[in-house]
Task: structure prediction
Amino acid sequence: MSRRERRDVVIVGGGVVGAACALALAAQDLDVVLVEARAPAAWSAASPDLRVYAFAHDSARLLRSVGAWDDIRATRAHPYRRMQVWDAGGGSELVFDADQLGMRELGWIVEHALLVDRLWARLAAAGVDVRAPAQVEALEQDGDGVTLRLDAGSRIEARLAIAADGAASTLRTLAGIGTRAHDYAQAGVVGYVDSTEPHRDTAWQRFLPTGPLALLPVGQGRSSIVWTLPADEATRMRELDDAAFSDALTRASGGRLGTLTPVSPRAAFPLRRQLADAQLQGRVLVIGDAAHVVHPLAGQGVNLGLRDVIGLADSVADARRRGARWDAPQRLARWARTRRSESAVAAHAFESINRAYSNESLLPVLLRSHALGIAQAVPPLRNLLWKRAAGL
Ligand SMILES: Cc1cc2nc3c(=O)[nH]c(=O)nc-3n(C[C@H](O)[C@H](O)[C@H](O)COP(=O)(O)OP(=O)(O)OC[C@H]3O[C@@H](n4cnc5c(N)ncnc54)[C@H](O)[C@@H]3O)c2cc1C
Result:
């Protein structure tokens, strides 16, 4: 492998996680190439993206460190100050409140397309070499680095390759890393709704036997919904006319925000858990959805991916401080072990919650409402739960 042409890092996939990773590593003076199959369309204020995230504080800190967050927040990021979780079968409620936690907000509701747009806007200035549209077709690696062959016939040699190309990751497959997947046979229905009662800057989540319904505040009297339903029911809900959908959704929300009226098209996306068998193989790292796809009930999908990036950027910074090799095999292995255990815990925790709540028999109802009540009644437990989810 020619040393002269070798780059430091090649990242495959320029979604939120891959683009943030490119910026975070370029900020540490690494020479980064980003390969993306489809250059993203520009974000438009007039057509809000249906995919929104409950963005955590540590994710915001990462984006601030690469110079993107202030612009995103000023453009359209709605802070949420409370999260209220309640159970349709029991009656217990769990409330997280920013004031009680000594914070201005618990997090922000942000559109996926805005995040991607603003991250991409910074790539050139940060010195990231962007190849788009381009796809990876072949991978070779040895102890010192990798060679990727792209569909345009070009080759990239680098010390490290990072797979950030989503759940169906090609690079992960080329590296020989398998996955374990579980299809929930559920889908998430997403869209925007207006409510007759104010949302009070609160992220509402109601657990129903069919799955959780989340109402996330995005503007004056407007919320984004993520409604988990059995797959065929989700298809039916997506296709209902607006009046019938409004009735069904208002009922499912227990009328907490009054009448809910759809104000956008709806989409439904299939839900599954998928974990890569490893997050490191030789000199290939796997991050974001390529490494872990989790249930969206806690809005943690993208936050979990950005934590892969935070861990990697911290590891590179630590190596720099010590004058050590940032890509030493033991260092990469330590990163992979830590990340894999957090991802596995998160994926299974979300699934257990979803399963416990998607059950109408009496015992789980009693147990779960009792659990919500205990968590609510014991502030340190509640605060601990929150701090873990919010990346504090
Ligand atoms: C419809 C929908 C709604 C969702 N809603 C929520 C939600 O409410 N809350 C939540 O937390 N999470 C949600 N998720 C999950 C969330 O979107 C993901 O966790 C997050 O996008 C992961 O980011 P990523 O960058 O790892 O992967 P992705 O966003 O999948 O990005 C992967 C990138 O890689 C590119 N790529 C793919 N293959 C190749 C290739 N061979 N070569 C080059 N580039 C390639 C793709 O074009 C893409 O840009 C939702 C997902 C979907 C699909």
Remarks:
- Residues 79 and 281 are 39 Å apart (CA to CA).
